[in-house]
Write a structure and sequence with these properties.
107 residues; five-stranded antiparallel beta sheet; globular; HipA N-terminal domain-containing protein; HipA_N1
Length: 107
């Protein structure tokens, strides 16, 4: 199981988990849900106590991944499998990301 903290404008909004079977779960932090001034991370994840589950990486996070030659370079330099989407996400979306979302690996 691998975990990553999801930050919105450098504030922890939730947790993304890749389970051993390859499926994914996203869950908001309780403090994020209880604060009405905090926005949703994505329109596909309404603020809720519920956990969101998917057999594959959620499209919102998948669309943050590099493509083409950029993906090849990142994979080669970081020794990542090209199909390791979670690994790509935690490698690239911690610093080099457009928008308010950052993804930080939980050790």
């Amino acid at each position: 199981m691998r975990k990553a903290r999801i930050l919105y404008k450098n504030q922890e909004a939730g947790m993304l988990i890749q389970h051993d079977n390859g499926s994914f779960t996203f869950k908001y932090d309780n403090s994020w849900i209880s604060d009405e001034s905090k926005p949703v991370v994505s329109l596909t994840f309404p603020k809720s106590q519920q956990e969101y589950h998917s057999e594959f990486l959620f499209p919102f996070f998948y669309n943050m991944l590099p493509e083409g030659s950029n993906k090849q370079i990142v994979c080669k330099l970081n020794r990542l499998d090209r199909n390791d989407y979670f690994g790509l996400l935690i490698t690239t979306a911690k610093n080099d990301n457009i928008g308010a979302i950052k993804v930080l690996k939980v050790e």
